[in-house]
Each structure stands twice: as structure tokens, then as C-alpha cells.
């Protein structure tokens, strides 16, 4: 059964053999992916100029043309897309060379439908994970690990104090508050700073692949496992493993994570050999894990093992003394990147920035400042170019008192603000504390299907 996320993901199949294209297309269609086909390099380039693809299945031999030479051009048209090379067993060395040029992985011929589906999931999720990490990097510029807020200062002081230990740290806070940034800072402040920093986003990886991503697998351990994979735990040896949104970790994996935290021991899928890895675990969540324990969704022993040291990052609306300094710093950085001479905001824009609810926190602020830096035509950013819900009319009319609104009107206003600050529908649903299906129905009810998040 195709997942809703698959319907939002697009995959291009490039092969000069129509039978191969059709086979791959049918496999992808059955899983709900949007897909397109190309029989030549020219057609592939034309397709990638028309739309963005999360992944590309590329044959190395396109008649008289070389798929190898096409890789950099595809990546130029669609930065970040994951290219999966289709190759015969006799050309595995060429596939490896293709991966050196930027390809994500290879799929040897002949292949089974299950292998195609698994590879598509891995490629699409890898693309999404890279995009998420890019968002974290952008949030890094927003957080700057400096704050006038006493609550943030206390959180940073605790983080610095705990960094040199090997204790597990749980970072709590709403989506977009900079939890991933703080985890990276803790690693950088620790004695493990010279080691790797590996990231696992628990909700971004399909449940059936998450154990393999964490602990690795042996070749042939399950359908589609055509080569060995070491896993993020092994990759983080000597360093830190950051488990983002650990509240979404499936119950079936929680006991294995608990064992790894306690004993640093694990097994790869398909291999009974017990392995050890010297890894420090950092975790983050936006949910109340205590409530999840009471609800039977999270193991109590794992919760206490994670919660050796807890650090809370407050939402941006509770640290208003930081809003203007952060906004100005981001604006100037984005202006420099886009070669714009911008010095600040109008008084009306500053007042709105300080009063805005910021449901998307630092991520929403970063997005708003990037947009303002690109669109602003003068030296200061006016109110109507902030691109935030309510900004255009904030200077023209007073904010309606909550007491003058019905509960339904308040709900619509809040949903509008959350959608405005987040590009991803699942992210908006997470902030609102409802599932994606419920958010979809409410968008339809309030006529918001053409506004806000669509992914």
C-alpha cells in the first residue's frame, strides 16, 4: 500500500530499453511515487529542467551515449537528487566509479521488484534527510549559541557542563527551536570533537529500514540487501550519535537502543555476531516522553536511560529579547549571500517581528529573513515584505482580541500561522499536535488547501 509521502516524491527513470523503463515505472507506480521516463540523455536533461526529482534511476549505457557523463549534468539541474545507477554485474566497477562522481548507489541487473522498491525508499529518504540537515545548518546560523534569554543561557550553561561527560543527554523543545544545532555544539565541546557526528532522524526513515540504518545489515539478510551496510552506529564510533525525534522510535526498536546505550553492544541484521561501538548518544524530542510512557508508546526504562541530563530549549515566543538581534543577524547574512545592501527593518516591521507568535520558531524566522533579503528592493525591509501571515495588515488594523473571536476562528488563525511557517505538512501537523489526515480535513474546512504547506 503506497504511503502519502510517496505520492509527493518524484522519480525519473532513464534507460534506452523500453522494457526496463516500464518495469521500473510499474514498480514505482505501485508504491505511489510520481514518476517520469526518459530514453536518452537529451530527454533526461529536459525532464530535470521541467521539474525536480527526488531520485533518478540511470542506466550507464544509453545507446551510444554514456550515463556516466550524464551524472554531473543531472545533479546540476536537480541539486541534491539521489542518482541510482542501473548496471549489469559485469560493470560493477563502472558503477563504483559513478558513485565517486556523485551517484547515490547502484542497482545490479537482473533486479527484483522488491529491490527497486527498497532502493527507491532509501534514495528518497536520503534526499529528504539531506534537506532536513540543511535546515538544521540554516538554524545553526539563527541560534548562534548566544542569547539574552535567561532560560536559553541556563540551557547552554548546562550543555557546556555536561558536554565533557559521556552521559546521555535528552534535548527537549518544539520543532525548529535548534535542538539539532545544540546537539552538534555539545559534540564540538566534548572530548569526542575529533570523532564523527552521525545523525538518525527517527520519523524520516521508514520503520522497516530504521534498524538497518542504525545497526547495519549483511548482504542477503533481507530482500533488496544486495550489499553489506555498516549502519550509523558503526559510522559514529569514537564520536556521537544524534537521534532526532526519538519519541517516534518504534517500540520494536526501543529495547535494542536501550541495550546499546547501556552496554554499547548490537548486532547487524542477518549476522548474529555481537559487535561493540564506543558511541555517545544524544537525543532530541518535541513530544512529552513521560506522557508517551504512560500511554504505552515509549519504554519507561529507555526514558530514564535517555533522561540522565535533560536540556529544554524554549520556543522563540518565550525569548522575545532575542528576536530582533537574531532577525537582524540572519537578514544581514542572507543579504550578503545575495549581494544586497540591506541594513535593517522599518519600525513597523520591527514591531511586528517582536509581536509575532513564531509557531515555526528559529526555522520560521530563518525562512522569513531569507525571503526578505531576496525580495527587498531598498536598504530597509518594510512590513509587507516579511512574508508572514498578518504582516501585511498588521500596521493597518489592530489585532483582534481573542475574546472577540469564536473558538473556530481562533483555530483557523492558528492553523494559518503554523502553515505559513512550515513548508512540510507533516511538520505543521506535528506542531499542532494532530495527525496529517486531521490537518488535511481542517485545511479543506477553512479553505486553506492552496495556502501554506503542501508537502
**Structural domains: how many:** 3
> Low-confidence parts, pLDDT < 50 over ≥5 residues?
392-402, 450-455
How far apart the termini lie comes to 19 Å
Number of helices: 20
State the shape: globular
Could you state the CATH homologous superfamily of the largest domain? P-loop containing nucleotide triphosphate hydrolases
Described by strand count, sense and barrel closure, the largest sheet is: 5 strands, parallel
- CATH domain fold name of the largest domain: Rossmann fold
Strand order of the largest sheet: 2-1-3-6-7
Measured on Cα atoms, how large is the radius of gyration? Answer: 24 Å
Give an overview in words.
The chain is of the alpha/beta class and 455 residues long. It folds into three domains: 4-126, 3-Layer(aba) Sandwich (Rossmann fold); 144-314, P-loop containing nucleotide triphosphate hydrolases (Rossmann fold, 3-Layer(aba) Sandwich); 317-445, Helicase, Ruva Protein, domain 3 (Orthogonal Bundle), CATH 1.10.8.60. It is built from 20 helices and 16 strands. The chain has helices at residues 4-7, 18-30, 41-50, 67-77, 92-100, 113-143, 150-163, 179-189, 207-215, 232-235, 251-263, 289-294, 300-306, 323-337, 347-355, 361-375, 391-394, 407-420, 425-432, 436-445, and strands spanning 10-14, 34-38, 55-59, 61-62, 65-66, 82-88, 105-109, 169-172, 197-201, 240-244, 265-266, 275-276, 280-285, 309-312, 344-345, 380-381. The strands form five sheets. It has a five-stranded parallel beta sheet, sandwiched between helices. A hairpin with an 8-residue loop joins strand 11 (265-266) and strand 12. Helix 6 crosses helix 16 and helix 14 (323-337) crosses helix 16. It is globular. Residues 392-402 and 450-455 have low confidence and may be disordered.
Amino acid at each position: 500500500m503506497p504511503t502519502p509521502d510517496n505520492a509527493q516524491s518524484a522519480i525519473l527513470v532513464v534507460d534506452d530499453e523500453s522494457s526496463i523503463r516500464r518495469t521500473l515505472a510499474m514498480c514505482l507506480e505501485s508504491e505511489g511515487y510520481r514518476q517520469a521516463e526518459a530514453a536518452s540523455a537529451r530527454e533526461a536533461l529536459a525532464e530535470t529542467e521541467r521539474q525536480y526529482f527526488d531520485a533518478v534511476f540511470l542506466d550507464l549505457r544509453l545507446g551510444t551515449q554514456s550515463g556516466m557523463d550524464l551524472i554531473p549534468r543531472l545533479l546540476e539541474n536537480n541539486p541534491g537528487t539521489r542518482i541510482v545507477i542501473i548496471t549489469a554485474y559485469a560493470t560493477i566497477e563502472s558503477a563504483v566509479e559513478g558513485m565517486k562522481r556523485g551517484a547515490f548507489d547502484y542497482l545490479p541487473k537482473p533486479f527484483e521488484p522488491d529491490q527497486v522498491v527498497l532502493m527507491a525508499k532509501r534514495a528518497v529518504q536520503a534526499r529528504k534527510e539531506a534537506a532536513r540537515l540543511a535546515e538544521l545548518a540554516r538554524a545553526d546560523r539563527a541560534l548562534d549559541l548566544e542569547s539574552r534569554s535567561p532560560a536559553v543561557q541556563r540551557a547552554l550553561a548546562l550543555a557546556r557542563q555536561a558536554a565533557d561527560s559521556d552521559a546521555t543527554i535528552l534535548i527537549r523543545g518544539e520543532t525548529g527551536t535548534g535542538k539539532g544545532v545544540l546537539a552538534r555544539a555539545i559534540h564540538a565541546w566534548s572530548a569526542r570533537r575529533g570523532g564523527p557526528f552521525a545523525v538518525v532522524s527517527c520519523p524520516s526513515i521508514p520503520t522497516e529500514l530504521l534498524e538497518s540504518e542504525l545497526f547495519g545489515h549483511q548482504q542477503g539478510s533481507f530482500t533488496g540487501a544486495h550489499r553489506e551496510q555498516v549502519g550509523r552506529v558503526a559510522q559514529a564510533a569514537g564520536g556521537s550519535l544524534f537521534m532526532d525525534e526519538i519519541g517516534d522510535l518504534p517500540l520494536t526498536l526501543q529495547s535494542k537502543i536501550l541495550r546499546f546505550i547501556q552496554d554499547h553492544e548490537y548486532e547487524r541484521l542477518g549476522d548474529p555476531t555481537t559487535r561493540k561501538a564506543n558511541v555517545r548518544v544524544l537525543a532530541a524530542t518535541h513530544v512529552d516522553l513521560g506522557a508517551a510512557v504512560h500511554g504505552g508508546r515509549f519504554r519507561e526504562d529507555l526514558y530514564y536511560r535517555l533522561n540522565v541530563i535533560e536540556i529544554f530549549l524554549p520556543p522563540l515566543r518565550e525569548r522575545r529579547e532575542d528576536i530582533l538581534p537574531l532577525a537582524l543577524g540572519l537578514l544581514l547574512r542572507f543579504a550578503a549571500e545575495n549581494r544586497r545592501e540591506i541594513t535593517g527593518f522599518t519600525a513597523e516591521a520591527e514591531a511586528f517581528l517582536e509581536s509575532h507568535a513564531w509557531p515555526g520558531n528559529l526555522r520560521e524566522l530563518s525562512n522569513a529573513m531569507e525571503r526578505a533579503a531576496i525580495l527587498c528592493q531598498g536598504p530597509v525591509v518594510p512590513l509587507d515584505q516579511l512574508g508572514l501571515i498578518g504582516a501585511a495588515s498588521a500596521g493597518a488594523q489592530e489585532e483582534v482580541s481573542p475574546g472577540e473571536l469564536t473558538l473556530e476562528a481562533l483555530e483557523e488563525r492558528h492553523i494559518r500561522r503554523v502553515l505559513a511557517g512550515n513548508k512540510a505538512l507533516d511538520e505543521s501537523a506535528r506542531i499542532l499536535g494532530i495527525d496529517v489526515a486531521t490537518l488535511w480535513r481542517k485545511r479543506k474546512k477553512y479553505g486553506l488547501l492552496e495556502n501554506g504547506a503542501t508537502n
